[in-house]
Specification:
8-stranded mixed sheet; binds pyridoxal-5'-phosphate; pyridoxal phosphate; pyridoxal phosphate binding
């Protein structure tokens, strides 16, 4: 019976949907993104339950599954919000309002908003597809000052967060299934998810936990030669530095080796540097950009194809919801650059609010500006607190039975290894869960703390980990550590062999 006949006969058979799980894009079905996966979904359900009843053993859900600082009470930087609000409501800058507004906003915020609006027009209008030229010039100045080597605004693309930049560069790099992209294990799942979507071949390489998650070029070479021997066309290497989920910060020497490796192996280097200001041991483990290290090397290496990504979501800014970022494309073939521009123009433009924050991130108040002191003090307060919290949580994890945890030299996460009793692994198995997932679900049920199992990032076979941010507010941090400690003790007592 056709649908029309069933309606005519009044049998009310539900009409078969045109787009279904069995016929939709299979690549989308293959995508996994653990940061917002099973744990996060369960955490949301528990949050709803908490809102309705008081029947859970904790009062709040603590989202340590995602590096989203303002969700966990981190305050926005005042100057940034002042300029953003003036750009949104330019009537405040009219001469007749000036006397009132200048009591609320410092002179440099008013001036910056005027300059930005001169270049932007209205924040409600589409901008240049590559990003507002004035803002790209400011990004180029920032890179030039950071590295001591010139950057060209024509090579900079403003993006909706670093994610959109990564996705468009990967979509340009991937020709078909045979294209291989080297990604770290463990990795931030944006990479594995995008490669699934594009139906490309991830070529994993291991970060060495026993060496503070550093990268071993000999292992890289092995990964590439095995993949190439199997017919995979390995074209690019993703490096996340400082690392997510691992918190490593690469030494300059290690970076030079990686550059030489990419150069000789004809591999494009993709440097995800979104955590470049989250550096907690600046003397021992400073941040170096790949662009700077590359340009400091012999000029033969200078035409290595390098794309570097940055974001307003991280650092001390934490404006994740505004979706702003950029990438710098270095030594990319001009014909490919035209294709990058074409792809950017298909989405018309990155959102203008995000672009404004990129401008402010790259050109914050300077010494002598009215907002300088306050800006500095806000950045410093957030930075010092993040550093203290990273150490506290690291000490907490290292005090737990069967747990070891490397320090976070950078980024916002710790990635402890947990050695689980055989009984716990068997129980997890019986529930159809990976052991680390099982542990994290039990943690969520007992404490309301939502973390992400190591299997969501990839981990060396036979090891179990989880990733937690150290973003919970500092005044709640002791309680947070105590809850985790109590949970772990109870878990181990329940399952100890
Ligand atoms: C390593 C890494 N790259 C990129 C991103 C995405 O950042 P954005 O918010 O700028 O898209 C994240 C977010 O957590 C990240 O950890």
């Amino acid at each position: 019976m056709t649908n029309n006949q069933s309606i005519a006969c009044g049998t009310q058979q539900p009409r078969r949907k045109t787009i279904r799980l069995d016929n939709m894009n299979a690549h989308i079905k293959n995508v996994e993104y653990a940061v917002r996966g099973e744990l996060a979904i369960k955490a949301e359900a528990l949050r709803d339950q908490l809102n309705k009843t008081n029947s859970l053993p904790f009062k709040t859900i603590v989202n340590c599954n995602i590096g989203n600082p303002q969700q966990l009470q981190q305050k926005p930087i005042t100057f940034f919000r002042q300029v953003a609000s003036l750009c949104d409501n330019p009537d405040l800058l009219l001469p007749e309002n000036r006397h009132i507004v200048s009591q609320l906003y410092p002179e440099d915020a008013l001036h910056r908003a005027e300059v930005l609006l001169e270049h932007i027009g209205s924040v409600g209008a589409y901008s240049h597809s590559q990003g507002i030229p004035h803002i790209r010039e400011n990004v180029a100045k920032f890179i030039t000052e950071r590295d001591g080597y010139a950057a060209n605004p024509d090579n900079i693309y403003l993006t909706q967060g670093a994610s959109a930049g990564v996705q468009s560069i990967l979509s340009i790099l991937v020709k078909d299934q045979s294209t291989g992209i080297l990604i770290p294990t463990p990795q931030y799942p944006l990479y594995s998810a995008t490669l699934s979507l594009l139906d490309a071949t991830p070529v994993p390489y291991l970060l060495d936990e026993s060496q503070d998650w550093s990268l071993n070029v000999t292992d890289l070479e092995k990964s590439v030669s095995t993949a190439r021997a199997n017919g995979t066309d390995v074209r690019a290497l993703v490096i996340i530095n400082p690392g997510n989920p691992t918190g490593q910060c690469l030494s300059e020497e290690n970076m030079r080796e990686i550059i030489e490796f990419c150069y000789t192996q004809q591999i494009v280097l993709l440097a995800d540097e979104v955590y470049q200001t989250n550096i907690y041991e600046p003397e021992a483990r400073p941040f170096h950009s790949f662009k700077k290290v590359l340009m400091s090397m012999d000029s033969v290496f200078h035409d290595l194809e390098l794309v570097s990504f940055h974001s307003i979501s991280k650092g001390m800014i934490g404006e994740c919801g505004r979706r702003g970022g950029y990438f710098e494309a270095h030594a990319i073939d001009p014909e490919v650059m035209s294709q990058i521009y074409k792809i950017a123009s298909v989405s018309l433009c990155p959102n203008v609010h995000g672009q404004i924050l990129v401008d402010l991130m790259c050109q914050p108040p300077k010494q002598g500006d009215a907002s300088f002191e306050k800006y500095n003090q806000e950045i410093d307060t957030i930075y010092s607190s993040l550093r203290r919290r990273s150490r506290k949580l690291e000490a907490c994890f290292n005090s737990l039975e069967g747990v070891t945890c490397n320090p976070a030299f950078g980024a916002m996460y710790l990635f402890p290894q947990i050695r689980l009793p055989a009984k716990a692994i068997a129980d997890a198995d019986a529930h159809g869960k990976a052991a680390d997932n099982f542990y994290c679900l039990e943690m969520l049920d007992a404490t309301g703390v939502c973390v992400v199992p190591g299997s969501g990032f990839g981990q060396k076979e036979g090891t179990w980990h989880f990733r937690s941010t150290f973003l919970p507010a500092e005044d709640l941090f002791d309680d947070f550590c105590e809850n985790l400690t109590n949970f772990h003790k109870q878990f181990m007592n329940k399952y100890r062999d």
